[in-house]
């Protein structure tokens, strides 16, 4: 029985039966690129037409549904419908939690008295905004979560006993820790001082917060309220990654019970059980476990090439388990009248700077290009080292809402050790959130090999390509190329993929011993979680005294350019960091195929903010390779979010030209001097000293890379004697802008 026919994705269905015996189904549906909560009611053997539940102009997420016998992007709303009369007008939307904080993932349940219970998870303000090594005016996606609850009876709000008194506080290794969610936090968040006080070679460390997520509510026949939730308490980690557990608390009288641990609930963060009660003071919890509480080192065999004929076995497998909890009888829950709720706060509209990028069009050589702003280096719960990165779904929620991106490549180390389930669910969600013309999801994973070969991010425009196991890495001082990297290039050519090295000047980096211009046309020159690897003394660059992830001086991108590698520049986030590193593509359309073509042609620049960069040479755009009989010139147009302090043109690893516009809009032309040995060139715009200040001690008061990409242009073949002197063509190769 099909309920929806729109070409947009319809996901996360929830269902309940009303007092007339009719089934109601609600879900998140994407219509013209926007997520909406929709519903339908059973009418005999069919269902009604779709009902639009929400009234938001932003994306709506996480539908929840409950029935009684008598929902925006960061807030929680509810709406009630009449069971008996489909023609009756539904009740107005009601704000349950609509503050400036992050409020999401609601759960609903009616008790026997017809009261509606609502639970949700909450985080601090500025969720998904600027957080990274050099700025902490926002918070990351999973910097902390707490569970809240409220009760409604018709139009009257009630406050249940405080969950914070019993739910666990910041995770630690003590199973019987007495830390509680309700304790006063050690410091407010967000905290701009975290970045300013960052110790050398370390990322900013926010103060610990509770990590309690995904509440699930149920009411039994006796009136007791049950709440299940995911938690990272106690801290438990092994080779597969962070272990999250399910706990249950129950409300009877004036207090919640202490947490009840659910065995065989060890699994990923986003693992939501079903709750059902068949008798008073009893609850059944049915959920899955992948067994990750027990460490099994054979998991590593999945990412190493094996000469054996048999495929290595995945030691972790999801199985279903049921738990039954019975408690002594208790009094009915005691509620207090809730204080008046503050007026709902309107969500922030899209930034005019990001809207300017989305609406910009560049016509070059009769072709119209649009800027597609995104990234392809994030992590989630699936990575083994991603305990503070959040869930897979939060990665798309961040891209669509907090960062208002046009595309993303998501996520994780080998899509989770190359395991079939985590690879499949990542591929599936990449299709679910793909909406050509509005938002594009590429297929992506990180493939990590330590120095001197390097960590790289792989990206495809098509579904179905499994991750590639590794060969053993070469010794650091060994001559020649790395067999594993050569195998990777062959795999990419066969399946039509590309790759980008990242953190090249660290222990995760490379000495640039290998390159394939077809398979590796771009490099991640900067990442929000760490630093810039362009060249010594560049803004936010690492150094021997401050290098997050280790120090490898052979990893400068400038050394790759000296070798003649043709690399466009992009920026992405990596772990935890948000809203400060972007890979901007000049594409002919908002489709997977068009974005992939932009990568192949190196029509790319990286940015730390919503910087518009349009850099051309005559009829050629950044990234193009061409020949000319004249000294090439750059036509540079930049529009920033604040005045640019400086703009540099860099040629042969030296500053060839510098201007100090002190303006947010820059437009100039620069012509290269005649030089047959020129290796590369490109502009680097630098932001206002009041916006993203440089590290202490930096002589240049400008922001780090914004709007960057470049490669070796302006190559000229050696001159040969000719009977008649005449201009010879110079080769201009893959220049792109940087900042």
Summary tags:
739 residues, 32% strand, globular, TIM Barrel, 3 domains, 6-stranded mixed sheet, single chain
- Average residue pLDDT: 88
Strand order of the largest sheet: 27-28-29-30-31-32
What's the overall geometry?
Answer: globular
| Alpha-carbon distance between the two ends | 54 Å
Number of domains: 3
Structural class: mainly beta
Low-confidence stretches: 688-739
Give an overview of the whole structure.
This protein has 739 residues and is mainly beta. It has three domains: 1-98, no CATH class; 115-337, no CATH class; 370-718 and 727-733, Alpha-Beta Barrel (TIM Barrel). The chain is 9% helix and 32% strand. The protein contains eight helices and 43 strands. The strands form twelve sheets. It has a six-stranded mixed beta sheet with strand order 27-28-29-30-31-32. It is globular. The two termini are 54 Å apart. The relative contact order is 0.08. The model is unreliable at 688-739 (pLDDT under 50).
Summarize the structure.
It contains eight helices and 43 strands.
Write the layout of secondary structure elements.
Layout: E1 10-17, E2 23-31, E3 34-43, E4 46-47, E5 51-52, E6 76-78, E7 94-97, E8 101-110, E9 116-125, E10 131-132, E11 135-136, E12 146-153, E13 156-159, H1 193-196, E14 212-219, E15 225-231, E16 237-238, E17 241-242, E18 245-252, E19 255-256, E20 260-261, E21 274-276, E22 282-289, E23 319-326, E24 336-337, H2 352-359, E25 361-364, E26 367-374, H3 392-402, E27 407-410, H4 414-417, H5 420-432, E28 440-447, E29 456-460, H6 483-495, E30 498-502, E31 522-527, H7 557-562, E32 568-572, E33 582-587, H8 592-600, E34 604-607, E35 612-617, E36 620-621, E37 625-628, E38 633-644, E39 646-651, E40 654-659, E41 663-671, E42 681-686, E43 730-733
Parallel strand pairs: 27-28, 30-31, 31-32
Antiparallel strand pairs: 1-2, 2-3, 3-4, 3-5, 6-7, 8-9, 9-12, 10-11, 12-13, 13-24, 14-15, 15-18, 16-17, 18-19, 18-20, 21-22, 22-23, 25-26, 26-33, 28-29, 29-30, 33-34, 35-36, 35-38, 37-43, 38-41, 39-40, 39-42
């Amino acid at each position: 029985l099909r309920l929806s026919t729109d070409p947009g994705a319809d996901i996360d269905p929830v269902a309940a039966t009303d007092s007339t015996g009719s089934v109601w189904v609600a879900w998140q549906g994407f219509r013209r690129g926007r997520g909406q909560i929709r519903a339908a009611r059973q009418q005999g053997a069919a269902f009604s037409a779709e009902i639009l539940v929400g009234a938001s102009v932003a994306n709506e997420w996480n539908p929840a549904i409950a029935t009684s016998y008598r929902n925006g992007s960061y807030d929680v709303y509810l709406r009630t419908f009449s069971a008996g009369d489909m023609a009756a007008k539904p009740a107005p939307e009601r704000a349950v939690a609509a503050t400036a904080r992050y409020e999401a993932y609601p759960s609903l349940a009616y008790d026997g008295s017809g009261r509606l219970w609502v639970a949700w998870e909450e985080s601090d303000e500025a969720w998904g905004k600027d957080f990274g090594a050099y700025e902490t005016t926002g918070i990351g996606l999973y910097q902390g979560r707490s569970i809240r609850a409220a009760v409604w009876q018709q139009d009257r709000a009630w406050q249940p006993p405080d969950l914070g008194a019993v739910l666990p506080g910041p995770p630690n290794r003590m199973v019987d820790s007495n830390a509680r969610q309700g304790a006063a936090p050690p410091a407010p968040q967000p905290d701009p001082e975290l970045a300013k006080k960052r110790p050398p070679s370390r990322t900013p460390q926010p103060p610990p917060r509770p990590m309690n997520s995904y509440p699930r509510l149920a009411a039994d026949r006796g009136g007791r309220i049950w709440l299940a939730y995911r938690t990272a308490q106690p801290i438990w980690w092994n080779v597969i990654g962070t272990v999250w557990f399910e706990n249950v608390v129950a409300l009877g009288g004036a207090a919640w019970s202490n947490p009840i641990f659910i065995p065989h609930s060890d699994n990923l963060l986003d693992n939501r059980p079903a709750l059902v009660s068949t008798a008073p003071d009893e609850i059944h919890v049915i959920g899955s476990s992948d067994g990750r509480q027990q460490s099994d080192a054979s998991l590593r065999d999945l990412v190493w090439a094996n000469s054996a004929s048999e495929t290595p076995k995945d030691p972790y497998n999801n199985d279903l388990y049921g738990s039954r909890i019975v408690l002594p009888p208790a009094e009915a829950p005691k509620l207090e009248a809730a204080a008046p709720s503050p007026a709902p706060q309107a969500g922030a509209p899209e930034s005019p700077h990001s809207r300017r990028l989305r609406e910009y069009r560049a016509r070059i050589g009769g072709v119209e290009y649009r800027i597609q702003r995104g990234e392809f280096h994030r992590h989630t719960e699936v990575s083994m080292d991603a305990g503070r990165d959040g869930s897979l779904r939060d990665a798309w929620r961040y891209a669509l809402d907090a960062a208002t991106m046009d595309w993303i490549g998501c996520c994780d180390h080998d899509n989770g050790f190359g395991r079939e389930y985590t690879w499949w669910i990542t591929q599936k969600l990449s299709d679910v959130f793909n909406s050509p013309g509005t938002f594009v999801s590429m297929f992506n994973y990180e493939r990590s090999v330590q120095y001197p070969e390097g960590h790289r991010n792989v990206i495809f425009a098509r579904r179905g390509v499994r991750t590639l196991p590794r060969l053993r890495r070469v010794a650091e001082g060994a001559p020649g190329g790395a067999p594993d990297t050569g195998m990777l290039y062959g795999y990419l050519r066969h399946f039509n993929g590309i790759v980008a090295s990242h953190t090249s000047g660290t222990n995760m980096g490379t000495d640039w011993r290998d390159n394939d211009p077809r398979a590796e046309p771009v490099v991640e020159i900067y990442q929000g979680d760490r630093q810039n690897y362009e060249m010594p003394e560049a803004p936010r660059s690492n150094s021997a005294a401050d290098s997050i992830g280790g120090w490898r001086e052979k990893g400068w991108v400038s050394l790759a350019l000296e070798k003649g590698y043709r690399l466009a520049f992009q920026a992405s986030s990596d772990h935890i960091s948000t809203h400060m590193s972007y890979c901007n593509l000049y594409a002919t359309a908002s489709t997977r195929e068009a974005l992939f073509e932009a990568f192949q042609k190196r029509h790319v620049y990286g940015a730390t903010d919503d910087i518009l960069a349009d850099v051309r040479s005559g009829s050629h755009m950044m990234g193009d390779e061409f020949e000319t009989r004249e000294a090439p010139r750059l036509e540079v147009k930049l529009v920033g979010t604040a005045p640019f302090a400086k703009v540099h043109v860099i040629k042969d690893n030296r500053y060839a030209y510098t201007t100090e516009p002190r303006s947010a809009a820059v437009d100039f032309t620069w012509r290269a001097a005649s030089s047959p040995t020129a290796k590369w060139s490109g502009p680097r715009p630098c932001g206002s000293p009041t916006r993203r200040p440089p590290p202490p001690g930096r002589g240049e008061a400008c922001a780090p890379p914004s709007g960057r990409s470049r490669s070796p242009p302006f190559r000229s073949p050696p001159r040969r004697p000719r009977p008649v002197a005449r201009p010879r063509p110079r080769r201009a190769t893959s220049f792109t802008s940087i900042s």
